[in-house]
Design a protein that fits this description.
- Helix 5 packs antiparallel against helix 6, helix 8 runs parallel beside helix 10 and helix 10 runs antiparallel to helix 11.
- The chain has 11 helices and no strands.
- By secondary structure, the protein is mostly helical.
- It is 72% helix and 0% strand.
- The longest helix is centred in the first third of the chain and has 47 residues.
- 28% of the residues are buried.
Length: 283
């Protein structure tokens, strides 16, 4: 009896120890499995996934999504205004490199501009504000990190680079540039106000509008000369002085050259002059 009792207890103790050892081994294997799985998953995601997004990427993605998908005019105006407030060239280049975004931007500009022209006067305020905000955005991108051809919709730029050795600037694109500048320039009814806080883009809009007008009608630069008279009557500010410096440089160069007579000449001349506008805008 004693022998059997002791034997039973020994077996029970051994079984208990084996059970405990089994559970410990099982937990150890489970922990090792999940640790390995997490490590593999982490390495796999790092390999196949995208890199961590920077703040610039998030800013660009947010604004792009608003422009590309929003159907609310107020939201589009807000997004366009946010782009105009960006002075980081790295961020602006990300916008300028996205063809779909640029196409949408130009599409919205044309849509809102036509709406503002065709609607009754009392209903024009919102589409007119949207067209102006988007036009300012297009000019801001081109003057900050682009060229004069970045004022054109992407689908129309192929017309310019053919033939490749002598790029041409057809008349309808000059008209389009003129429309952008017209929607961006300082409104006539504000010319008598205190303009010390007005963004320089509004002054440059006046100059670009006059410049494109001369190129369209092949005048002897009489419109750009008139722009100097307009600006000289404004309230003095740093932005205004920069603009006057710009028109002085442009006018000096133009006075020593003849109006362009061919599409090729216009492309070369305007490309050179646009670089002056870019330098002033950057300053």
């Amino acid at each position: 009896y004693l022998y059997e009792t002791v034997w039973i207890r020994i077996r029970a103790t051994g079984q208990s120890r084996r059970t405990e050892q089994y559970m410990q081994a099982r937990e150890s294997r489970s922990h090792h499995f999940w640790s390995s799985a997490q490590e593999i998953t982490s390495h796999t995601l790092a390999w196949i996934g995208r890199q961590d997004e920077t703040d610039n990427d998030l800013i660009v993605a947010t604004v792009k999504r608003e422009i590309l998908t929003s159907e609310h005019t107020a939201a589009l105006i807000h997004a366009a205004t946010n782009i105009c407030a960006i002075d980081d060239n790295e961020i602006l280049r990300l916008f300028l490199a996205d063809v779909d975004f640029l196409e949408k931007l130009h599409e919205l500009f044309s849509t809102f501009r036509v709406s503002a022209l065709n609607l009754p006067t009392q209903l024009r305020t919102v589409p007119d504000a949207a067209a102006k905000a988007i036009a300012a955005t297009i000019l801001h991108l081109a003057l900050s990190v682009g060229t004069i051809m970045d004022l054109a919709p992407p689908k129309d730029r192929a017309l310019v680079i053919f033939p490749p050795l002598r790029p041409m600037l057809p008349n309808h694109l000059i008209w389009y540039f003129w429309k952008l500048a017209t929607m961006t320039q300082l409104e006539h009814d504000l010319w008598d106000d205190d303009l010390k806080d007005v963004n320089i883009l509004r002054f440059l809009g006046i100059l670009l509008r006059k410049l494109f007008q001369d190129c369209i009608h092949l005048h002897d630069w009489e419109h750009i000369e008139g722009a100097f008279d307009i600006l000289s009557n404004f309230t003095t500010s740093h932005q205004l002085l920069c603009s006057l410096s710009c028109v002085a440089k442009v006018y000096f160069l133009l006075r020593h050259s003849n109006p362009p007579t061919e599409d090729v000449d216009r492309h070369e001349r305007l490309s050179q002059l646009f670089e002056i506008f870019k330098t002033i805008y950057d300053a």
